UniProtKB/TrEMBL annotation:
Pfam families documented for this protein: BatD (PF13584)
Keywords, in A-Z order: Membrane, Signal, Transmembrane, Transmembrane helix
Segments passing through the bilayer: 448-466
Endpoints of the signal sequence: 1-20
InterPro entries: BatD
Organism per entry: Flavivirga aquimarina
Protein name from the UniProt record: BatD family protein
Amino acid sequence: MKLIKYISILLIFATSITSAQVKFEAKASKSKLGINERLRVDFEINKDGDNFNPPNFSNFTVTAGPHQSISNSWINGVRTYKKTYSYFLTPKKRGNFTIGQATITIDNQVYKTLPIKVEVTAAVDKPKDPNDPNYIASENIHLVAEVSKTNPYLNEALTVVYKLYVSPTIEVYNWNEIDSPRYNDFWSQSINIKGLKVQNGTYNGQDYRYLVLRKTVLYPQKTGKLNIEPLSLDIALRVPTNRRDIFGSLLMTKVNKVFSAGNKTINVKPLPEAGKPIDFTGAVGNFKLNVIASKKVLDASESFQVKVGVNGDGNLKLFKLPKISLPSSLEVYEPEHKEDVKTRLSGMTGSISDSYTVVPQYKGKYPIPSISFSYFDLKTKSYKRLTSDEIVIDVLNGPTNNNDETSNNTNLNNVKQRVVANNDQFAFIKTRTDFISIKPTYFFKTNLFWSLLLLPFLAIPLAIIVRNKKVSRNADVYGNRIRKADKLAKKYLSNAKKSLGKKEAFYIALEKALHNYLKARLHIETNDLSKEKINSLLKDKQVDDSTIKDFIAIVENCELARYTPIDIVTMQEDYEKAAKTISLIDKQAR
């Protein structure tokens, strides 16, 4: 009997110890999910507590929750208690994220969960359920990426148009772009769409309404199979159910669902090696070459411009223009590059040019050799070469360059001239010198010596005066607090000024400046600064009623501005009014 009694006592003691242990855990429904999936996170506690604080789900959108559930059971005399806080989350973007710690207070002790790591990937295919509203939505809404070419050449333009098809039975009332495609290995340019226009069309043989959401022009920068990542949207919509109201109309239910355009793969062909020119720099399209000189007849030291330009359709921003080669007698400056290129659905069109400023130094005729430019023509699928005409620049007036290749007097270089001897050719060498004796000087007993010696003694009275002023300043506790308040107010007003135009940041900084100034100026240390208390404290300090009214009005503006639209002009007025009011309180307070 005693043995059974001891065993029972031990069991009760072990049960009490087990029940006393607090378990607070965070559990995720999955550690890896697509951006079009939802994640469930449960925070479970085996003992009731207070002040539950969830983590900051900064990289997720909380679509539902928190939902609370309590489980309380007795099994073989042992009580089991579990309380669960559940959240349903939708990821905002791809990446590896950490869901932080949740906290709860039990018996005056704070407990925390462990962080959870979650990986969000691109959109994935989800299983289909005909009875699920999400499945009904997926069958009646389609986000499509239409690619103009799936087998282009390197640097050939192709277009991706994203369309959203919606069945007439579905009501869409909001959407949000949660994942934009990253065009790796492409040069990309988005085409601006002015206003979204609902159009009627067909998809898979059925009538749909559709919107063109985005148009993007791509130029592949490498060969082989390249992936175009999907566009993903979080769409809020209403879908019909099997239930009807009393009038026989179908009842609608709200659904939030992520739709993806799906991956697209294109096969980029390399440009042919046969017939490729040596000076080919990657131009693909249809182009014309222009080489123009602003002047062909001028004087020496006058400047003129040589413009090398290419215009047409193709990858204008993705290749280099040919360089000009000029005689050494012409001074050439670095070219000024200009682009006048528009990007349309068919690709780039326009012109690019390099303008060289040239200054001739000597009289003569100078040829600008012809320039060659080659490109790959997509229509004929062959390389073409363009060549400019030679341009001759005639410099009429100026010095003659005897060494210039344009001079006809080449025989002058062969004429030998007699060297005339000069009797004074070594006159620069001095044969007589005038030396001046230098007397030795000593630093001792000079004016500089006595000045440096007496300077420390002269600085002692100045140091005493500065020290006394510092002591008296430190003893002025009240004055120091006022100065500290001014510095603090200026600091926060400075932060508010920097945030002009950003409504929330501006009014937070402005409110901090007002409260911290008031605390230091009125010698109070409290967080309870109600409007009634501010009014009472300022009246005790003999501040004018109008100044008190202005101060409280600014505080009210700071509170209301977070919930109402405010323009930058109103922010500027509030800033100036706050600075003026702080200055008036500083002068009037006793």
